[in-house]
């Protein structure tokens, strides 16, 4: 039996609906939203003494159920279908004396003005507003005008809808311009199999007298998980909030039926501020053989560790999921702007939401474990917040790593998943005569500084490789003597500090375009200037160009570790202008004949990367590359002089010799830092 219309326009035709209800018979037809789901919202806005008008009632049981539970017992139902009206009269004539059914067009109603406290519409607006043709919009405006006319001031128009963008936009614009309060509720799902994948919404438009000349709009949204409405500043923001919830429902529907071929990510936002509170990644492991207990788990990433390779990259999360042994692992990253009371509180907050992302085949009432590293949520303490005209907003924060180690990090908030600079913190050292604290004493507060900066430790793997590249200088078995080193890009200052402290005869010049970074490095990362360490606040492009014109061949080593602020380019380090051939010629000019140019390259665009390598080869005949495992970074060691091309084994030998010279009695050295290891995987380009 064919019940669907031949065209969307037929949804507004009385003839179509007569044929529909005659063919369907006595079976009630519900567009969407069962009464148990709608009841919590309707109960807020329909009072027992209200006079209620239901427009486009069809043969839905909604008004009957409202009547039977005592929500309201003065209900008038209208419809353009004579067949539907006759069916409904027969069903309710003897059992519901306060219920009436009238054959009437809602575009031309016979009721007097201000006759009802509530007008209820379940799917009628959606059926009428099938397109945005002029004739259709005229009918919709006539419908709204009639509803406005028959409603009292303070009355509510309740519209149950799937909230298609053009439908919601029209309703919000019309009634907000009339001075009404507009609130959109998302209807909570019962959990049963739904006729529609998209969530159901109820628009609540409350009539107020229009104030001449007032442009104020009151627009609110009530997500399904909360009762309190959230104010939004514009119709566009309201539509966007609804769209986000529709996309989320589609995502949940999709991944509940089939495994994810690619990792899916989404943000869960704070109810009050609207800012992201949790970032979720759904990771499926097809290789894991499913059993009753390994379908699904939640992994809480400790605060401050979301940038680590295991948690912050697709490959890392894939390995994490496989090693955890679950078919689907949901990783949860915590945001620095939010407060968390502990693992139990996070579990209580997320338990309902994460089950919406459960995999297909999850057994009913299955306990889903919450996992973490060491069973806690980690420690993150923001030490400083700042803003720079060049770098934007940034934070300096202390985080707890593995074991008892703490690290200080600089994060640019425009790229919050990347650690810009990092330093390890030393454990506090008791003063002379001060007793050590007993182990059973109260743990230090996360807001207390763990200690000073450990300047002997290079946190970043690419910095270790850059320092190892200095083995190309000097003789094969000796530490380079007096060195002139230029570092472009200061960050937290750990790279130039290490070169300054461990190459005791090195004179280090640092070029930094952003004066805020010098202040941050000095105050928070232990950086200091002196006779052998000078910082120049300048654009690196201008500084190098000026030196090339005035003082050529003066540096033994030039190091570029400068990030790009343009996130639209597929290369985040360095900015493209730093690797154009004319500028590289200037770099070569200020480099001594046997000097080394060390470049930190972070490029995801394969074609752009090849053009960068071509420009480097054209200027520097000797080119070595060291890829950093698990990262996009690649360290390029470039030489232009007559030095012989060296094999990786030769480079390793020189690196071991350099390390031996750098390790001096009484000078701290990180035992995990082996220079030769940094050059074992070097490629000769």
From TrEMBL:
The keyword Glycoprotein does not apply. Transmembrane segments: none annotated. It comes from the Eukaryota. Keywords: Methyltransferase, Multifunctional enzyme, Transferase. Residues 50-171 form the Methyltransferase domain. The keyword Methyltransferase applies. Belongs to the methyltransferase superfamily. This is eEF1A lysine and N-terminal methyltransferase. The lineage of its organism: Eukaryota, Metazoa, Chordata, Craniata, Vertebrata.
